[in-house]
Structure formats: structure tokens, C-alpha cells
Structures
1.
Amino acid sequence: MYSKELLKGTLKPILLKLLSDRGAMYGYEIVQAVKQMSLGKIVIKEGSLYPLLHALLAEGILETESRKVDGRTRKYYALSKKGKTETVSALGELEDFMSTIKLILTTKPTTQL
Amino acid sequence: MYSKELLKGTLKPILLKLLSDRGAMYGYEIVQAVKQMSLGKIVIKEGSLYPLLHALLAEGILETESRKVDGRTRKYYALSKKGKTETVSALGELEDFMSTIKLILTTKPTTQL
DNA sequence: TATTGATACATCATTTATCTATGCATCATA
DNA sequence: TATGATGCATAGATAAATGATGTATCAATA
């Protein structure tokens, strides 16, 4: 797990990317997938994920459908049409941001003002 | 400027990297340097920077020295010995985090569970 | 058969990094 | 003499994520 705050702002694009790749997913599955893909380094908390899912649902970015599997209810979330557009811009922004950070981190010390 | 929250957790390592590269710097100079290096995309607010500088000073990560230049007071901050160690781990963590995000963002859609 | 751990959803209070807004002061310029 | 750039500072607001907690089903095990 990374120091508390780095994750901020990255959860939403990560979620959108996952749904974009895999189609409909349910909460528990999302947590496991992120944990697995990040080699255990990113563990989304339920207290973070469910409010985010509900918010994106309310925004019309996600659509939902409940299915009963082995006596347990799973609530599947998928990208709406609007959500697919949103995903493109969210991922673009994150990648842009990361290159900016990378730029600062890799600037040679000799580059003085 | 990026959407509000992405910056969270990155300000400290960015600051440490800057001081590590350039030695002692003062607040206003730091804001300008980050703005310039990020091509205007990252603008640190004074309300964010000064409390951070004071906190790092209190932690013994930074050392300070005031100089009067052209009638204006500049408060220079530099890494302490402890701060140099801290910088190494902070930058390491940020880079590790970024590769993890990159890993998730670039995973091929065909990689299903 | 009782307990534990995994599965599955949910909410509420707390934390905390950053921003907004504001304040003060000096200097250069128009 | 007003404005913008330089320079430091703080207090209150914002909002994302966490921690803590709750409910319930199912599988494994002791």
C-alpha cells in the first residue's frame, strides 16, 4: 500500500479503465481486480468504492443491473454511452498528468533557471 | 491545471526533488519553478506551499535561512541531512506508484481474469 | 454444529491535503 | 498613484479516501 494520499484522483480513471476493458463488473470483483493488477499495491476500500460507484451512477456515467448468483446478490456496473466519453477524457487527463510529473522528476539538475 | 485532486500526494515529492536539484530555494521561487517546469500545468498555491514548508521544517526535513534582497525578505529552504534521506524514499515511492498506475492503464483488454 | 473466512453490499464519521480568500508589505512601472 | 509582480503568511472551506461498522450468504473446518 502506498502512502495515503497518492491514490487521490486516480480511483475514478482506474475504475473507468477497468469497466472499459472488461464490461460489466460488480464491486467486490473490482476490488479484487485492482488488487491483482497492481500486485497487491493498490487496495481499494469499500468505503471508497461504493460511494464512487453510486456517484457515477447518479451522474449517468454508469448503468447498473442486479443479478443473483449462488444466493448472493451482485450489482453489476457498466459504462453508459456518456460514460465511455467520460472515460476517454479521464484517461487522457491522467496520462497527461503523469507525463508532467515524470517530466519534473527526470529533469536534469543542471537545468537551472 | 489538472482536475483538482490528481496533485494530492505529489506536491511533497515534487518539492523535495526541486530542493534536491537546486539547493536552497524560497517559496515564491518554488511556485515559479514548478509552473515553468510543468509548462503552466501545475500551479502550486501559496495556501498549499507555505503550510507544507512549515510542516517539513517542523519535521526536521528542511532547514531555513532568511536573506534580505532588494528590501524584500526571502526565506530560503534547503534539505537537511534527514531531508535528503526522506527525498530518496519519497521519490522512490512516487515512481513505484506511477509504474503501478501505468501498468493498470496499459494492460491489454484481452487480459481477462 | 459452531466458528471462521471469503463473498457481497452499504453508510457514516473522520481525516487531511489542497484551495480560496484574505491580509500585509516592498518594489517597479505606467 | 495605481497596478502588477514579488514575497510571506494564515484561517476557513472543500472533497476524496479511509476506518469503523453493520448486515447477510456460503464454504470449509474444527
Note: The CA atoms of residues 27 and 49 of chain B lie 7 Å apart.
2.
Amino acid sequence: MARPREFDIAKALDGAMRVFWRQGYKATNLPDLLCAMKLTRGSFYKAFGDKGAVYYHALERYDEEVVSANLAALKACDAPDATTCLMPMFTLSDAADHGCFICNAMVEVAPDNPKVAQKTQEMADRLKQGILGVLEVRDVGLSPAHRTDLAEMILHLYFGFQAMGKSGRAQDDWEGRIRRLLGEG
Amino acid sequence: MARPREFDIAKALDGAMRVFWRQGYKATNLPDLLCAMKLTRGSFYKAFGDKGAVYYHALERYDEEVVSANLAALKACDAPDATTCLMPMFTLSDAADHGCFICNAMVEVAPDNPKVAQKTQEMADRLKQGILGVLEVRDVGLSPAHRTDLAEMILHLYFGFQAMGKSGRAQDDWEGRIRRLLGEG
DNA sequence: GTAGTTAGGAACTGATTGGTTTCTAATTTA
DNA sequence: TAAATTAGAAACCAATCAGTTCCTAACTAC
């Protein structure tokens, strides 16, 4: 006894993810957000509550889509060396030329939003585990502690890379660097 | 034949630097900014023009004060190993528990402000040169190209470290990692 | 058909935004 | 003393902000 929802919640959140990813939280106003979600104000507030809630859901979708796809690619890689598998993380694709949503959320939103802070940490941990998995399958000579350290360093390199990318800095030869870091030179 | 300015421009910009550093550009409104600069609206607009101009000046002051102090410390360090000299960069002091202003500006402002983008790149380059200086005095066995690569990696590690720090993540043993990265283990 | 829920659109709220103007009083140099 | 410039406070501006309300129309299940 009710008219069914016409828009697709997942698709709407996809649009929200994209616009928050590109513009950040504060810089995205309601009209921007509604346009990206293809929703009107009424439907928006009835379905999601408020802007902050949608931002969190957008983070969740980034986790489910982008991060998961990233992890799957790391896992599926069959190159014999770890560097080759990790390189895509250090190639700014056209689709992601606005940086990494996790990094953006950490810097802009996390400091005064504990829920977002925790979510970004969880996502960073997932990435780290993915990197660790790549190392475990290959550089078997390393001690587990050393391997964890390397994964953490690559994760930090990744975030630093993403942050600097947002200033438009030209990117350099990361393959050689990662290779040397992992002793695969 | 004119009443002299009573407030200290440098001190006012210092206050602006602190509040922008802590809160970011968008999250800092005029009342916040005026309070931090200890200025009234009238004096503010007459002396500086607008909020955006003050943000840029705040970045410049960060460069002159914080970055310069950082570089001076790197240069003055007399420890025999590079790691010991670089470690302070990876220790979040109380004074800077809101991260690194350069990193914040890169992520929040640089994407749609070319002047800020260029300034952050210049500041990052200064940091890199400082790191490079530390390496040049010590690890003389390295080739120049390898040394530049290492400096760039440490710079990226630093920015990644700062970004992740904003999510409140507990910090781990960076001394061991840097030491191993530089072959000083 | 009717109850219940949705969509879409528009109007509206109260608060806040960055920025301007206008006033008086103070302080300087010539 | 007179011209010039500042400080400080307040009122004011138009625009924008997130969020609410109200309306009609559409749709589904009972």
C-alpha cells in the first residue's frame, strides 16, 4: 500500500560519492549534491536525513567499490614481483584525478568527526592488508615484522603521493623507487 | 600626517596562520579569523583585502617560520646518522597536532587555487632540499640519483604520515623504518 | 475505492556567509 | 591647527547555507 521508491539508492549514493570525492564536504552544497544524486530536496531528506549522513554513506560506497576493486586487483595480480602489482596504486588515472577519497576525508573531515575518522582508518587498514598480501605471496625471505613495516611504508607513500598530487605536482618514476624499496631492483 | 598602524601585521598573520592551519580555509569564518588576528572587520579589510589574500599570506608565514625552522634544524643536526636528524619530522608535537599546513592546503585548497597550488609545491620542494641536504652530508656512498630518490620518498612518507595523523591514527615505530630505508640499520 | 507512501516542485525558514559602509575618536606630521 | 589616516564599533548588505513545509500528482496494496 505504498508507492515504491523510483530512484536507485545505490546509484544516488554513487553520485554523492563522486561529488564529495571531487569537491570535498564543505565545498559541496545541497544543489551540487542533489544534482549529482539526481534527487530533489524532498526525496533527499526523506531518504537520507541530512548532508552529513550522506557523506558517511558516500565513504562506505567508496570502500565497497573503489577500495574493494583495488584490493581485488592486488590479489589477482600474477606478476612475479610485488612492484608490478603495486604500481597501479601510484598511477593517477583519469577517473581519479581528484585524488584519493580516503586521503581527502582524513584531512578535511576526520579531525572533527569521529565516525569519519574511524571509517577512514578502517579503509586505510584494508589497503594495508592488501599491500601486505602482495608482499606475503612474493618476498618470502622477509621476516613478518619487516614485511608489515614495508606495507605500512608503502601505505604512507601512497597517501603522501595522493596529497601531493592534489597540488598538481608532476609525477616521477615511482616504479624504480618501489622496486628498490622492496629490494627487487 | 597619518595615524600609524597600531597592530602588528606580522603578529596578525601569525594568528591567521594558526587558525587556518588548525581549521582549514572553508571551516574558518570571518569571526574566527578576526578573533585569531585580534582585528576588527574594518582594519582587516583595509589592511588585507579579503579572506583569500590572508590565507595566502598565512601560507607564506608558515613557510618563513615553520618550514624555515624545520630546515634550520635539519642543517644544524650533528648526529652522525641521517635518521636521527630526520626523526623530528615524524614526531607530532603538541604545537602541531593539527597536522602539516602544507599538506592541509594541498588537499583542501590547491585543487581550485593555482597560486596556492604553486606555493605548496615550492614549500614541499624546500622541505625536499632540506632532506636531501641531510643525506648529502652523510650517506656519501649513494649515487646522486639514488639520493634524490630517497629524499623524494621521505618527503612523500612525511606527507602520508601527516594525512593519516589527522584521522587520529596511533603512530608506530618510524625510526626503525627510516633507518632501514636509508640502510642505516 | 481507499489508505499509505512516493516524487517533484516550489516556497519558505532562520542562520550564517563574506564583504561594505558609516560613524566617532585617536594619533600623527606638516 | 589642519590634513590624513588609523582604530573600533555597529549597522547593514545581498547571497548562500542547510533544512522544512506544503502542495499536487502518481503509484501500489489491500
Note: Chain B touches chain A through 40 residues (CB under 8 Å).
